[in-house]
Amino acid sequence: MLTAHMAHFSTQLNYYLSFDVVECGWVEAMKRLRSDSLDSPESLLLAHSNFLQSATKHAFLHPESRVIKSQLRLLYGLLEDLQTLVEGFLRPALAEKERIDAHRARTEERIRNKMYGTNEAEEAALALAWQKFLPIVEETQTKARCLLTTYEEQMSAFLLDLCSMEDVRLQDLCIRLDISGYYVSRDQKLRMSLTLAHRLSRGQLRLRADHASVPSLR
Protein backbone atom coordinates (compact mmCIF):
# COMPACT_ATOMS: atom_id res chain seq x y z
CA MET A 1 0.00 0.00 0.00
CA LEU A 2 2.84 2.38 0.81
CA THR A 3 4.41 2.06 -2.64
CA ALA A 4 1.00 2.59 -4.30
CA HIS A 5 0.38 5.77 -2.30
CA MET A 6 3.85 7.14 -3.02
CA ALA A 7 3.62 6.32 -6.73
CA HIS A 8 0.23 8.06 -6.92
CA PHE A 9 1.59 11.13 -5.13
CA SER A 10 4.64 11.39 -7.39
CA THR A 11 2.63 10.87 -10.60
CA GLN A 12 -0.10 13.37 -9.76
CA LEU A 13 2.32 16.04 -8.54
CA ASN A 14 4.47 15.69 -11.67
CA TYR A 15 1.35 15.97 -13.84
CA TYR A 16 0.23 19.09 -11.97
CA LEU A 17 3.62 20.78 -12.38
CA SER A 18 4.12 19.87 -16.03
CA PHE A 19 0.54 20.37 -17.27
CA ASP A 20 -1.44 22.61 -14.92
CA VAL A 21 1.44 24.95 -14.13
CA VAL A 22 3.79 24.98 -17.13
CA GLU A 23 1.73 23.94 -20.16
CA CYS A 24 -1.55 25.68 -19.28
CA GLY A 25 0.33 28.74 -18.08
CA TRP A 26 2.29 28.88 -21.32
CA VAL A 27 -0.90 28.62 -23.39
CA GLU A 28 -2.34 31.60 -21.54
CA ALA A 29 0.91 33.51 -21.94
CA MET A 30 0.94 32.87 -25.70
CA LYS A 31 -2.62 34.17 -25.97
CA ARG A 32 -1.53 37.40 -24.33
CA LEU A 33 1.59 37.62 -26.49
CA ARG A 34 -0.52 37.34 -29.65
CA SER A 35 -3.07 39.91 -28.54
CA ASP A 36 -3.17 43.35 -30.14
CA SER A 37 -2.67 45.08 -26.81
CA LEU A 38 0.98 43.94 -26.66
CA ASP A 39 2.43 46.40 -29.13
CA SER A 40 5.67 47.34 -27.40
CA PRO A 41 8.78 45.53 -26.10
CA GLU A 42 7.88 46.57 -22.57
CA SER A 43 4.45 44.94 -22.75
CA LEU A 44 5.99 41.74 -24.13
CA LEU A 45 8.51 41.64 -21.30
CA LEU A 46 5.72 42.26 -18.80
CA ALA A 47 3.64 39.38 -20.21
CA HIS A 48 6.63 37.05 -20.02
CA SER A 49 7.41 38.21 -16.49
CA ASN A 50 3.80 37.53 -15.45
CA PHE A 51 4.09 33.99 -16.80
CA LEU A 52 7.29 33.37 -14.84
CA GLN A 53 5.77 34.77 -11.66
CA SER A 54 2.66 32.62 -12.05
CA ALA A 55 4.72 29.48 -12.74
CA THR A 56 6.98 30.21 -9.78
CA LYS A 57 4.02 30.71 -7.46
CA HIS A 58 2.09 27.61 -8.50
CA ALA A 59 5.23 25.44 -8.56
CA PHE A 60 5.77 26.23 -4.85
CA LEU A 61 8.97 28.18 -5.56
CA HIS A 62 7.65 31.49 -4.23
CA PRO A 63 8.81 32.63 -0.76
CA GLU A 64 5.17 32.49 0.38
CA SER A 65 5.18 28.72 -0.32
CA ARG A 66 7.88 27.91 2.22
CA VAL A 67 5.49 25.80 4.34
CA ILE A 68 4.31 23.75 1.34
CA LYS A 69 7.88 23.48 0.10
CA SER A 70 9.02 22.19 3.48
CA GLN A 71 6.27 19.58 3.47
CA LEU A 72 7.20 18.47 -0.03
CA ARG A 73 10.80 18.11 1.08
CA LEU A 74 9.68 15.86 3.92
CA LEU A 75 7.45 13.77 1.64
CA TYR A 76 10.18 13.25 -0.95
CA GLY A 77 12.55 12.42 1.87
CA LEU A 78 10.19 9.60 2.85
CA LEU A 79 10.21 8.38 -0.75
CA GLU A 80 14.00 8.19 -0.55
CA ASP A 81 13.73 6.36 2.79
CA LEU A 82 11.51 3.75 1.14
CA GLN A 83 14.00 3.34 -1.69
CA THR A 84 16.82 2.82 0.82
CA LEU A 85 14.71 0.32 2.77
CA VAL A 86 13.83 -1.68 -0.36
CA GLU A 87 17.39 -1.71 -1.64
CA GLY A 88 18.68 -2.84 1.75
CA PHE A 89 16.15 -5.69 1.80
CA LEU A 90 16.68 -6.81 -1.79
CA ARG A 91 20.35 -7.68 -1.32
CA PRO A 92 19.84 -10.40 1.34
CA ALA A 93 16.52 -11.44 -0.25
CA LEU A 94 18.14 -12.07 -3.64
CA ALA A 95 21.03 -13.89 -1.97
CA GLU A 96 18.55 -16.14 -0.16
CA LYS A 97 16.62 -16.78 -3.38
CA GLU A 98 19.83 -17.73 -5.19
CA ARG A 99 20.71 -20.12 -2.35
CA ILE A 100 17.30 -21.82 -2.53
CA ASP A 101 17.36 -21.97 -6.35
CA ALA A 102 20.84 -23.50 -6.32
CA HIS A 103 19.75 -26.11 -3.77
CA ARG A 104 16.69 -26.96 -5.84
CA ALA A 105 18.78 -27.26 -9.02
CA ARG A 106 21.27 -29.60 -7.31
CA THR A 107 18.45 -31.71 -5.95
CA GLU A 108 16.77 -32.06 -9.35
CA GLU A 109 20.07 -32.89 -11.04
CA ARG A 110 20.79 -35.65 -8.54
CA ILE A 111 17.31 -37.11 -8.93
CA ARG A 112 17.74 -37.20 -12.71
CA ASN A 113 20.97 -39.12 -12.13
CA LYS A 114 19.08 -41.52 -9.83
CA MET A 115 20.85 -40.31 -6.71
CA TYR A 116 19.58 -39.00 -3.40
CA GLY A 117 18.32 -35.47 -3.98
CA THR A 118 19.72 -33.96 -0.79
CA ASN A 119 21.21 -34.85 2.57
CA GLU A 120 20.87 -33.78 6.19
CA ALA A 121 23.89 -31.46 6.11
CA GLU A 122 22.55 -29.51 3.12
CA GLU A 123 19.07 -29.31 4.63
CA ALA A 124 20.50 -28.10 7.94
CA ALA A 125 22.60 -25.44 6.19
CA LEU A 126 19.57 -24.27 4.21
CA ALA A 127 17.44 -24.08 7.36
CA LEU A 128 20.15 -22.15 9.22
CA ALA A 129 20.43 -19.62 6.40
CA TRP A 130 16.65 -19.18 6.42
CA GLN A 131 16.61 -18.59 10.17
CA LYS A 132 19.23 -15.85 9.70
CA PHE A 133 17.13 -14.28 6.96
CA LEU A 134 13.83 -14.15 8.90
CA PRO A 135 14.95 -11.35 11.30
CA ILE A 136 15.77 -9.21 8.26
CA VAL A 137 12.20 -9.72 6.98
CA GLU A 138 10.70 -8.82 10.35
CA GLU A 139 12.90 -5.73 10.72
CA THR A 140 11.99 -4.56 7.21
CA GLN A 141 8.28 -5.03 7.92
CA THR A 142 8.56 -3.01 11.13
CA LYS A 143 10.39 -0.18 9.38
CA ALA A 144 7.87 -0.21 6.53
CA ARG A 145 4.95 0.11 8.97
CA CYS A 146 6.64 3.04 10.72
CA LEU A 147 7.36 4.64 7.37
CA LEU A 148 3.71 4.23 6.32
CA THR A 149 2.48 5.89 9.53
CA THR A 150 4.85 8.83 9.12
CA TYR A 151 3.97 9.20 5.43
CA GLU A 152 0.22 9.24 6.14
CA GLU A 153 0.67 11.91 8.82
CA GLN A 154 2.78 14.11 6.54
CA MET A 155 0.44 13.62 3.59
CA SER A 156 -2.62 14.53 5.65
CA ALA A 157 -0.92 17.74 6.80
CA PHE A 158 0.13 18.54 3.23
CA LEU A 159 -3.39 17.97 1.85
CA LEU A 160 -4.92 20.05 4.62
CA ASP A 161 -2.69 23.00 3.72
CA LEU A 162 -3.44 22.56 0.01
CA CYS A 163 -7.22 22.53 0.40
CA SER A 164 -7.06 25.66 2.57
CA MET A 165 -5.50 27.63 -0.30
CA GLU A 166 -7.68 30.09 -2.20
CA ASP A 167 -6.29 28.92 -5.54
CA VAL A 168 -8.79 26.49 -7.11
CA ARG A 169 -5.98 24.63 -8.89
CA LEU A 170 -4.37 23.78 -5.56
CA GLN A 171 -7.70 22.63 -4.17
CA ASP A 172 -8.12 20.39 -7.21
CA LEU A 173 -4.60 19.07 -6.69
CA CYS A 174 -5.55 18.20 -3.12
CA ILE A 175 -8.47 16.11 -4.38
CA ARG A 176 -6.33 14.39 -7.02
CA LEU A 177 -3.60 13.53 -4.52
CA ASP A 178 -6.09 11.90 -2.16
CA ILE A 179 -5.95 8.38 -3.62
CA SER A 180 -9.48 6.94 -3.70
CA GLY A 181 -10.55 9.28 -0.89
CA TYR A 182 -8.25 7.44 1.55
CA TYR A 183 -7.05 10.47 3.52
CA VAL A 184 -10.41 12.24 3.58
CA SER A 185 -12.01 9.13 5.11
CA ARG A 186 -9.36 9.06 7.87
CA ASP A 187 -9.03 12.76 8.67
CA GLN A 188 -12.06 14.73 9.88
CA LYS A 189 -10.33 18.11 9.49
CA LEU A 190 -9.47 17.33 5.89
CA ARG A 191 -12.99 16.06 5.21
CA MET A 192 -14.48 19.26 6.62
CA SER A 193 -12.10 21.48 4.64
CA LEU A 194 -13.17 19.89 1.36
CA THR A 195 -16.91 20.30 1.91
CA LEU A 196 -18.72 22.88 -0.17
CA ALA A 197 -20.25 24.66 2.83
CA HIS A 198 -16.88 25.09 4.52
CA ARG A 199 -15.22 26.45 1.38
CA LEU A 200 -18.12 28.87 0.82
CA SER A 201 -17.85 30.09 4.41
CA ARG A 202 -14.16 30.85 3.85
CA GLY A 203 -14.90 32.66 0.59
CA GLN A 204 -12.82 30.18 -1.41
CA LEU A 205 -15.62 29.64 -3.92
CA ARG A 206 -16.96 32.77 -5.57
CA LEU A 207 -20.12 32.16 -7.52
CA ARG A 208 -20.42 34.46 -10.50
CA ALA A 209 -23.78 35.91 -11.45
CA ASP A 210 -23.88 34.07 -14.77
CA HIS A 211 -23.42 30.73 -12.98
CA ALA A 212 -25.59 31.40 -9.97
CA SER A 213 -28.98 30.61 -11.49
CA VAL A 214 -30.11 27.01 -11.48
CA PRO A 215 -32.59 26.00 -14.17
CA SER A 216 -35.87 24.56 -12.90
CA LEU A 217 -36.67 20.93 -13.59
CA ARG A 218 -39.94 20.43 -15.39
Assembly state of the chains shown: single chain
Main pleated-sheet profile: none
Question: SSE order in H/E notation?
Answer: HHHHHHHHH
Secondary-structure-derived class: mainly alpha
Describe the protein's architecture and organization.
This protein is an all-alpha fold. The chain has one domain. Helices cover 79% and strands 0% of the residues. Helix 1 runs antiparallel to helix 2, helix 1 runs antiparallel to helix 5 and helix 4 packs antiparallel against helix 5. The longest helix has 47 residues. The protein is elongated.
Task: Note the topology.
Elements: H1 2-34, H2 41-58, H3 66-112, H4 120-163, H5 168-177, H6 182-186, H7 188-193, H8 196-201, H9 209-212
Helix pairs in contact: 1-2, 1-5, 3-4, 4-5
Summed up:
By secondary structure, the chain is an all-alpha fold.
For this entry, give a set of tags.
218 residues; mainly alpha; 79% helix; elongated; disordered C terminus; GCP_C_sf; cytoskeleton; gamma-tubulin binding
